[in-house]
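Good morning C.,

I know you're traveling, so I'll keep this short. The sequence:
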Amino acid sequence: MLKVELHAHTSEDPVDRIPHSTTDLIDRAAALGYDALAITLHDRQLDLSPWQQHAADRGVVLIPGIERTIDGKHVLLLNFSSRSEEVRSFADLAVLKREERGLVIAPHPFFPLGSCLGHTLMDRHADLFDVVEVNAMFTRGVNFNHAAQRWARAHSKPVVGNGDVHRLRQLGSTFTLVDAARDPGSICDAIRQDKVTLVAQPLSWLTATRLMSELFYVDLKKLLAPRIDADQLSVADSRS
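The tokens, ready to paste straight into the viewer:
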């Protein structure tokens, strides 16, 4: 069985500010005994060739991926070509799936966030999703993954555990064990065939609160940055 993470971001991400590099992520995953890792930047499929040898030397298989925004919602596309960057609608996704054999995962589908798919889109496009994600951001008392697991059972879809890694300490509490050979295609095929074991451990309230606070602070800074820059420019103009 291979220990696998299928949802991780690095400093190459064009949307989120991530403090760790791709090399850092590979090294941390190797230290925790991961066998395979999908790097899924927002709306950009990273060219993995500069890191393939580094990962191979550490026993980690790299899986190409992207967290694509499709009709305003996040969807994980794994082991597709760079054409995945061109997918903008679910109609586009249907075409890509017909022409390429990649893996489509519904990430954190029922979390209370605007970028999450929700019941309407999950039901409408159920045939496009190969797999449903159990996201590591949960505690014993608050767990939005229950709805995802119920939906997966109702639609006979496999479930995988992902960290949605924005900080290295998010690795390790929730992941997937996959019965597959050590290459991206075999791993994706095995997941599609439900040859998986979910490992999902709740976070403590303290850990979850600290992570959410840090991530919210970064998002708030990103949201306010254009306004701050505009205000500074306005002040500079008034002094000139």
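Safe travels,
E.
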